[in-house]
Amino acid sequence: MKIKAIEHIGIAVENAGQSSPFWNHLLGIKKTGHEVVEEQGVSTVIFDTGRGKIELLEALSEDSAIAKYITKKGAGIHHICLEVDDIETAITDLQSAGVNLIYDQPQVGAEGMLITFVHPRSAGGVLVELAQKPV
Amino acid sequence: MKIKAIEHIGIAVENAGQSSPFWNHLLGIKKTGHEVVEEQGVSTVIFDTGRGKIELLEALSEDSAIAKYITKKGAGIHHICLEVDDIETAITDLQSAGVNLIYDQPQVGAEGMLITFVHPRSAGGVLVELAQKPV
Q: What is the pTM of this model?
C-alpha cells in the first residue's frame, strides 16, 4: 500500500449553496464538480486547488451520516481522504494490522473512486477515507 | 490571492508519540519533521505524502489552543491549511471582503511559513489556516 496524496478534505455543511461562495469566490478555488452519491447519502460540491480538493457534503436526508454528524458536532471538517495506489492491498494490509475499517470491500464514492474508511477509533479520532482513482 | 494547494491537515492529538505510528507505520507516510512552535503553543510532528502533509499537534501546556480544543471536542482534525502565493494579499483581500481573520499580520508558523487563520465563523465551522512558503 502506498499513500500518494491528500485527495480531498470532506466538510459537512448544512447547505452547500450557502457554503460554496466562501471556497469559490472568496478563496478563489475552482469548482470542478457537483454530484449526488446515493450510497453515502450525500450531495457533494467539489473545489479543486490543483493539489487537493475541498468537498462540501450536504445530507440527502435526516438519517444520512452527515445529518447525524452535524446534529452531534456541528458543521465543519468531517473527514480527510488519502489517495492510495491500490485499495484492495490497503484493505488487506490494514486489516491484518488490526486497523478497524468501515467497509471491508471497496465501495464506489464520488468521482467513481474506490473507497473505504478507517474508523476514527483506529486513527486518533480522525475519520480517514482511503480512495483509489477509478481504473 | 491564489490558493496553490492543500498544504497540510492539522490534527489535535493527546500524545504525538502514541499517534505517530498510525500515520508513519500503518499508512506508511514519511515523517519529515518535528518542531516546537512556541508562538502557537504546540509541538508538531509532520508526515508528508508528497502531495499534502499531515501535521500532528500536541499542546505544550494546558492553556494552549490545542489543549482547550481537545477538552472541548476531543482529539481529531483541528484545522486545514491552504498554501497561498502571497499572504499579505490574502489578508488584504479577505479583510476587504469582510472575512474574519485571527491575525491581521502574518505570523511565523511551523517550517517558517507565514500564516494567518480564517475564523471558523467565516468558514462554515472550519478553521482555515493560510500559509505562504518562506521566501
A: 0.96
